[in-house]
Amino acid sequence: VWRLLGLLRPEGRDLTMVLLFAVGVGIFSLATPIAAMAVVNSIALISVGQQLAVVCGMLFLALALASFLKYQQGVVVEYIQRRVFVRVAADLAYRLPRVDLRAFDRQNGPELVNRFFDVLTVQKASATLLLDGVTSMQEGFLDQVGLGNRDTLPTVLVDNVIYQNWLRGEFGAPDVPQAQELGRDLLRAQT
Predict the structure, then answer these.
(1) CA distance readout (Å), 149 to 26, 29, 131, 138
(2) What is the mean pLDDT of residues 143-172?
(3) pLDDT at 91 over 70
(4) Which of 79, 93, 95, 157 gets the highest tally of CB atoms within 10 A of its CB?
């Protein structure tokens, strides 16, 4: 673990960029549930027209930005992988000719040199950790605040549409003061 951290220490600025890109992707990805809720609300309130087009356009823009940031995140991780590989290869090229040949009496020489190729495995694992690990942390955070369950959103949206239509049937409109004041209590009393 300490060697991996030592290899990644010079990449601090780029690792910060990867983290910032991941946060940006997470924020822009939240546009989908927010837009879906806005679409359902506009349909429930029968005000579809121009609002629906604006919401869909903003959703497209947010998802396009999220895709661009995810791409940039992958590019930065790829550059980090290349630089780590070059540093390790240069270190091997520097150390290998200077090895005391008596060291190979105790250890198998080719086996020691083959450890260099373990760097490739570590690089792929670290790339996966950088790209998917941050996303997993964000999903865990959203789960802790109650937004992480992907099945929750459709249920909330359907309940909202049914409730808005029930208010419309009981009070004539869901936004009249009587509906806002008495709606939940009346619904609880009927169920």
Answers:
(1) 15, 14, 21, 12
(2) 61
(3) yes
(4) 157
Inform me whether the pLDDT recorded for 36 exceeds 80. no
Rounded CA separation 33/36 (Å): 5
Q: Given the structure tokens 């004041």, which residue do they identify?
A: 181
Q: Is the pTM of this model over 0.85?
A: no
Backbone angles phi, psi at 91, to 5 degrees: -65, -40
Give the least confident one: 19-23, 46-50, 70-74, 145-149: 145-149
In this structure, the dihedral spanned by the alpha carbons of residues 35, 40, 46 and 48, taken in order and rounded to 10 degrees, is 30
For the record, the structure tokens of 111 come out as 């086996």
Give per-residue burial for 148-186: e unless 16+ CB within 10 Å, then b. Answer: eeeeebeeebeeeeeebebbbebbeebeeeebeeebeeb
| Paired tokens of 141 | 């955070």
SS (H, E, C) 124-136: HHHHHHHHHHHHH
